[in-house]
Write a structure and sequence with these properties.
This protein is an alpha/beta fold. Helices cover 45% and strands 15% of the residues. The radius of gyration is 17 Å and the shape is globular. Bound molecules: nicotinamide-adenine-dinucleotide (NAD).
């Protein structure tokens, strides 16, 4: 129970890694605000947490909308009376974000809005509450796209920027006892990776070749959740501004 008594906001909670993180954080003793634009999905994960004996509040919020984010943070503090942990996990990976020459401004803004601005808004509104509670931790979910070249220019830019924004957050709040770290997942078996595989096939975009140095399977959402729980906990009390690839060795090139 490495998160006993803590309160966490987890975005993108309705699916994949976010759902796995809600379940794991609750299992470790945290109360969780399960935030997602998908209302039914957020309610379903909150119910799953309750059924497993944990505490969770579903909250519907588009992370790219400032006022909704402000309200999500305020509602969490109203419900649980405190806030210690923030996981910025909500993300999108769009079919239209492939060739730069076809990439529209609308798609660019959409990807940046969810993957980057959403994390900025949550940091902006949640960190003051975390400081009031004596400190805590931020875990941002970037991607190996932040570490190595990939296609999908907007996605790659958003994740690279998220990684470096995290370092700025870590630097600025170290004195307030707020740590901030980044996880860079590799290919992980979720709705996002399955959809991406489908549209790559449809567009006859070659799959990235699996090579001998990579563990010969996709990651599981629970394998990202366990690293997130560790980084959020006091087990990682001297770790801040760090970047954790959880990618089966993909970036060992
Ligand atoms: N799956 C992978 O292979 C992989 C690899 C590297 C990084 N990632 C990153 O991991 C994170 C989680 O991805 P996943 O694979 O679990 O994806 P997923 O599609 O299974 O889940 C993403 C969740 O984010 C929510 N979401 C989307 N837009 C939102 C918005 N505007 N506001 C609030 N919620 C929103 C969705 O409703 C969904 O529940 C993402 O940031 C993604 O970029 C995924």
């Amino acid at each position: 129970m490495i998160l006993q008594g803590k309160v966490a906001i987890i975005t993108g909670a309705a699916s994949g890694m976010g759902r796995a993180m809600c379940l794991r954080f609750a299992q470790e003793g945290a109360s969780v605000a399960a935030v997602d634009v998908d209302r039914k999905g957020a309610e379903a994960v909150a119910k799953q947490v309750h059924d497993a004996g944990g505490e969770a509040m579903p909250f519907t919020c588009d992370v790219s909308q400032r006022d909704q984010v402000r309200e999500a943070v305020a509602a969490t503090v109203r419900r649980f009376g405190k806030l210690h942990l923030l996981v910025n996990n909500a993300g999108i990976y769009l079919k239209d974000d492939y060739l730069l020459e076809d990439l529209t401004e609308e798609t660019w803004d959409k990807v940046m809005g969810v993957n980057l601005k959403g994390a900025f808004y949550f940091c902006r509104f949640a960190i003051p509450e975390i400081i009031t509670c004596g400190g805590g931790a931020v875990v941002n979910i970037a991607s190996t796209a932040a570490l190595a070249g990939v296609d999908h220019p907007a996605y790659a830019a958003s994740k690279g920027a998220l990684l470096n924004m995290t370092r700025a957050v870590a630097r600025q709040y170290a004195a307030d006892n707020v740590r901030a770290n980044v996880i860079c997942p590799g290919s992980t078996d979720t709705a996002m990776s399955r959809n991406a595989a489908a549209f790559r096939q449809e567009a006859t975009i070659p799959f990235p070749r699996m090579t001998s140095w990579i563990l010969p399977r996709s990651g599981r959402p629970e394998e990202i959740a366990s690293v997130a729980a560790f980084l959020a906990s006091e087990e990682a009390s001297y770790i801040t501004a760090a970047v954790y690839p959880v990618d089966g060795g993909l970036t060992a090139i």
